[in-house]
Amino acid sequence: MIRIKDSRSQSGMTSVITIIIFITLCLISGQVLCFKVIGCSGGSVMFNCMYKSDEQHNTKPLNKRESSDQFKGKYFCRDRDCRTGISSETQHRWVYNERFALYDDENRGFFSVFIRKLSREDDGKYSCGNNQEWSRDVDLVVNRNSSSCGTSVIRSAYKGQTITFSCEYDHGFETHTKVLYRVNGDPVFVLKISQSSQSSEEKFILSDNQRNHFTVTIRDISEDDDGVYLCGVERDGGDKPPSETSITHITFIKEIELNVQSQITSVQVEAYISKSVFIMCEFPEEFKENKKFIQIHSLQEISDEQNQWIHLDKVHMYDDTSSGVLKVFISDLTEADERTYRCGVKTADGHLFTEITLKINQGDHFRESSESAAVIGESVKLSCNSPEKQQSIKHICKENEQKICQSISSSEKQRFEFSDSTAGVFTASISNVSLRDAGVYWCGAETRHKCLTSVSLTNKHQLTLTMPPVIGREGDSVQIKCPYDEKNNEEVCLRSGRCLSKEVKYLCKGKCLSKDAQIIIRSDEDHVKNPKISVKDDTDLNLFTVTLTELRAEDAGKYWCAVKDVFNLPIELMIIRKDEMTTSDTKRVTPQPEMTSSDTEKETVQETEKPEMKTFYTKRETSQETVKPGKSASQFDLEMLFR
Q1: CA–CA separation, 460 vs 264, rounded Å?
Q2: Residues contacting 544, CB < 8 A, separation 6+
Q3: For 310-326, what is the mean pLDDT?
Q4: Which residues lie below 8 Å from residue 635, measured CB to CB, with a gap of 6+?
Q5: Is 308 exposed, middle or buried (CB count within 10 Å of its CB: 0-12, 13-18, 19+)?
Q6: Is the peptide bond before 187 cis (omega within 30 degrees of 0)?
Q7: What backbone phi and psi angles, to 5 degrees, belong to 90?
Q8: Which of 608, 612, 566 is nearest to 588 (CA)?
Q9: Which of 47, 334, 612, 629 has the fewest C-beta atoms under 10 angstroms from its C-beta?
Q10: In terms of DSSP H, where are the helices of 366-484?
Q11: Could you read off the pLDDT of 419-443 as tens digits, one per residue?
């Protein structure tokens, strides 16, 4: 006889008795009448509900009618009216009720139940069975203390790509069988288990050789692979690996939604012999900082440092991590450059790419190159061949020091305008020309594809700059102001405390650093050497100013401002004799030999209403300008020079 000493002992004994009774009921006649299914919050489970055997509730075999009854009306429910769960009389296909699904096939001797996206509210007692003949008790346990279970991710992939994802599991499942299932409408089916033999050439590869996670690889992805995948472990009601006689179920620990996108297999880009082409390849945001590459053919690939131009022969590449774009520039095109290229990005699973079929056309109708001169502060027009395709966009770019044509920056674009095409030609206009506008420009046609933008460059322009002419009067003084790029203003300070620019600036008569150039003064020369000429180099304003005093007729001519051999800016100096100034409003005066310009064969001076105002006409100019002696021919201010 058992004595009950206190309420706690009584309660404990009651629990033991309850467990013994539960186990006894579950094992009546050696048959399993109840079982446990374990899942995790956010995860899924799948288990089988076995049909009853002929001997379970009968001492004799079932007759034909009784045998057929057990195949009708299968269910998995929490309560009698089955408000939570699912029931079906359908055979050989999945039936769904929100998160619950049931598949029945009488030939297998069981039906399968699948529950997706478990929550703590699903925890509890259920029953599965036949509406008329038999049932099983199911204890569904939903855990929420696992950090690796119940996760859900979305992955994107492209056709032809190979991807790999990992499925994390708790330490206790290292020796359990791992599985990969797919949910894609109808039905839920197994793709791979860890114990099966596998080849590296298979579509699905499950590798379970890592600690606390296994990996799944899907090769050569197609549109049919789009869908939801489930990683899981096979287990029974305990924590140890199930035995051969255990009733097992699948606890799904991770859900992967795979979105397959169509990859552009080939994009045709057109360009022209002896010209250039600029290509920008775009990639998904998730690969923004991954290394990009351009593949010229199967054995030749450019892929190196990021955020800088690198090249192989005439193919240049820039991996821009800020925008996630790969820029490719190919110059001096020939027929041999007509081939298929690949621009791609390296991923953890391999790489994905876009194929580019480059077609090279004859470009005989395009001019080789042209030279244009612009006056600082004014406008200039560049003539370009019109895009041949309706969907093309007019484009202009400027070469950098590596002779790679790069798009105009957004801050400068407002100064660039295109005219409408006329007779196959359009005009690119640059307004408010400044010092930094000098250089080589290309214009052409821009075409935008789904994952790629190409620019076929057709017209090359060398743009040189000149300063407005400076007018001086004989015997007076005049200032010639030479702006220069800020990269040439680095200073070095002497022991005396005086600081000079590291780069020497020159004013020359004739093009500086050429054979026939006459150096007038250098920025590092002392004023004492030539009292009539002084120089000031303002590194704050990037302005080199030369003052000429006691002007004479022979001082007239073309001068050049220069920094090293990378910068030469021409300026015309005109000298007017004092005795040629009149106050007549209508008299036209033919210039005397004393007023001269080295590049002008004939000039006339016309008096205007105001004294000391002159109008100059020259053969090379098609317009006239009215200027004051000692001033520039246009408003010469620093803001204009450097904008």
Answers
A1: 32
A2: 481, 482, 483, 484, 505, 507, 523, 535, 536, 537, 538, 561
A3: 91
A4: 377
A5: exposed
A6: yes
A7: -80, 140
A8: 608
A9: 334
A10: none
A11: 877 777 889 999 999 888 889 999 9
